[in-house]
Amino acid sequence: MRSDPLFRLCQNRPRMRHARLKSVLQAACFLCLAGGFAAPAQTAPADYEEIVSAKLAEAQGGEVLRLSAGTQEFLALYKTASSTDTGRAALILHGMSGHADWPDVVARLRRGLPAQGWATLSIQLPVLAPGAPWADYGATLPRVPARIDSAMTCLSRLGYRELAIIGYGFGATAAARYLAANGKGLSAFVGISMHAPPFLVPRPDLLESLRHVPIPMLDIYGGRDHADILREADDRRLAGMQERARSYEQSAIEGADHDYAGYEAVLISRIVGWLDRSAKPVDPGALPVRAGNEGASACRTGTN
Predict the structure, then answer these.
(1) Which of 79, 80, 120, 279 lies most in the core, judged by the most C-beta atoms within 10 Å?
(2) pTM of the prediction?
(3) Distance (Å, rounded) from C-alpha 281 to C-alpha 269?
(4) Spatial contact of 245 and 215, defined as CB atoms under 8 Å apart
(5) Nearest by Cα to 165 from 242, 67, 271, 265
(6) Is the dihedral of CA 256, 262, 266, 272 positive or negative?
């Protein structure tokens, strides 16, 4: 176990009530993943994702897969289900400025769902260097669909026939945007604390995406979640219910904040219960693989 204070902060940081303080902690966690990289933001490497991915690969070892989206390779963390031959897998998308093993929600889901019969594949989304404007995350969204295509193709070729997408925060918004255009070949969508912050440039239209998601959808959030997520709950519900050809369910976990600290078991139970009722096997031929995206050909361990 590493003993340096920064690493302990990343792995066991306390619950924070103030967004500004939390953003500082997020930046600190990225620094610890980067092995203590502490250069000023203006001198940060051009592709910070490579640093984050390298440290995750070093820490997670045999769970690492290398996928490709067009000409770009990206990291994913894969865990098989504890019980064999379930045929079920969930793709997990982390939140803004996070990573594929983010301690809030993402790490607990990707390790907890396999015990409930769901393999997990948590992919690294585009991440900006510390100090980059938060608004710039809006411009990363066009890079996400090819990664989802690649991950879903990989899971299909590994033999999974029930394929769900679970997104957290910004990752849920990215997933909804993707599914509105490409989701017919998938089983189910779980959006955890979905929101599209107004500072994003361009700002994605989350409600419009929810109107067009064609597969069963669970909209789940904490009873003490961020104010905008609580305020927009009715709007999300109305948008999600407009597509009557598929089911939509909204669920609040009372007492939970945006990090779901202390409520992780409830979150997993709520998600698995809904997936067991709602997810259906998919036709592998219906998966939306884009031309030139041979993602599954790079579905290999990080040690290969």
Answers:
(1) 120
(2) 0.83
(3) 21
(4) no
(5) 271
(6) positive
* Cβ proximity of 157 and 67 under 8 Å: no
Q: What is the pLDDT of residue 26?
A: 47
- Report the length, in residues, of the chain: 304
The CATH code that applies to domain 48-301 is: 3.40.50.1820
φ and ψ of 19, to 5 deg? -60, -35
Q: Cβ neighbours of residue 244 under 8 Å, at least 6 residues apart?
A: none
Concatenated DSSP letters of 163-209: EEEEEETHHHHHHHHHHHHHGGGS-EEEEES----TT-SSPP-HHHH
d(CA 201, CA 185): 30
Q: How far apart are CA 77 and CA 124, in angstroms?
A: 8
Average pLDDT over residues 157-176: 96
pLDDT tens-digit series, residues 244-268: 888 999 999 999 999 999 999 999 9
CA distance 211 to 206: 9
d(CA 112, CA 265): 8
Q: What is the residue extent of each domain of the chain?
A: 48-301
